[in-house]
Specification:
Aminopeptidase, alpha+beta, 6 helices, 7-stranded mixed sheet, 211 residues, 7 strands
Length: 211
């Protein structure tokens, strides 16, 4: 879920000596915006011209053993995020325990894996319903794109767009109206994708204080 804070919280942190260390943004595609969907479609059409596209397969976690998938995802996560700002590697056991504890909240059709030639996992995207909407409306209409990871070997080849396209189509088919691209670091390439496919929703600061 998207964090939510009162505006005055920032002032409170600053008064006790905290300073912004870095910034994150979230963007939103509302009502499956046709212009933003068009941007995504154009990206996919360009990718179809490359030879490697025919070897790409996207599968969801439906009808799959979750623990088996999470073991594969763990390996890719370590590889994809090892150079990310403030990333700390979790032990496999902790990673698996953490995600399996939310098994009843995971919507497997929003857990998409990207394979090269059917067997090499080279990316994944993980979306969750915005359950916080149930606090003020009768149903959830927004899906949050929580995590996307691509093997460094395939960075810059548009793999992220392929995964996001599949996830957005799944969300739309399931009756969701909005997609949030959540908490992207201001210097991460994912910010460029989020800005192309959605309007800025919120900005966040990570505060730090030396003790």
């Amino acid at each position: 879920m998207e964090p939510w804070n009162e505006d005055y919280y920032v002032e409170l942190f600053e008064k006790i000596g905290f300073k912004p260390l870095t910034y994150y943004i979230s963007t939103i595609m509302e009502n499956m915006n046709p212009v933003q969907r068009g941007h995504l479609s154009k990206k996919i059409e360009k990718l179809k011209k490359f030879d490697y596209y025919k070897d790409i397969t996207v599968k969801s976690a439906e009808n799959e053993d979750l623990i088996t998938i999470l073991n594969k995802v763990y390996d890719l996560t370590i590889e994809a995020f090892k150079n990310n700002f403030l990333y700390s590697e979790l032990d496999r056991e902790i990673f698996l325990k953490m995600y399996m504890s939310y098994e009843d909240k995971i919507v497997k059709k929003f857990f998409k894996m990207l394979y090269l030639k059917e067997d090499e996992l080279i990316g994944y995207v993980f979306g969750i319903p915005d359950y916080a909407e149930l606090q003020y409306k009768e149903k959830v209409e927004t899906m949050i794109l929580k995590t996307i990871a691509i093997s460094p070997k395939y960075n810059g080849k548009g793999m992220g767009y392929i995964l996001i396209d599949e996830l957005v189509k799944e969300a739309e088919h399931s009756g969701y109206k909005n997609v949030i691209y959540a908490l992207m670091h201001e210097k991460n390439i994912s910010k460029n994708i989020g800005s192309l496919l959605g309007d800025e929703l919120r900005r966040y600061a990570l505060f730090i204080k030396e003790l």
